[in-house]
Amino acid sequence: MAKPEHEFFPARTVEFTRCEGTVDSLVERILARDPGTGVATRILHMPPGTDTTPNGVQVHDFWEEVYIIEGSFTDTRLGRTFSAGDFACRPPGMEHGPWTTEEGVTTFEVRYPA
Fold first, then answer.
1. What is residue 37's predicted lDDT score, i.e. its pLDDT?
2. Which of 21, 23, 50, 52 could join 46 in a cystine, given CB atoms 3.0 to 4.6 angstroms apart?
């Protein structure tokens, strides 16, 4: 199965849902997903004060591209803060995170198979 076909629609009409893991404040809007592969396009939101340390370092078996729409977060492992307008392209197996955010952050992400 592939991602569903969508013509333009207001992304805000898609409800935020809690992400997997132990951080209750971490939420996502899934805009399109292939249920067979888990490949997805989403908006991720971390409200002010979110700390994803309990989820640990993330590693995926898929490509992940991330664009920060607004706000900022700090990668605690790298000791670096990334802000609106910053972009990442992560190949399968690349370690990233965990993150903390004082002001909150919203990202646009696309995930696809290796």
1. 82
2. 50
CATH of the domain at 63: 2.60.120.10
**Predicted TM-score of the model (pTM):** 0.92
Residue 68 in domain: yes
Sequence-distant (6+) residues with CB within 8 A of 18 are 24, 26, 27
pLDDT digits (tens, 9 = 90+) for 51-63: 999 999 999 999 9
The CA distance from 48 to 27, in Å, is: 12
Pick the closest to residue 76 from 95, 100, 93 (CA basis).
100
Q: How many separate domains does the chain show?
A: 1
The answer to whether residues 32 and 9 touch, using CB atoms and an 8 Å cutoff, is no
- Cis, bond preceding 98 (omega within 30 deg of 0): yes
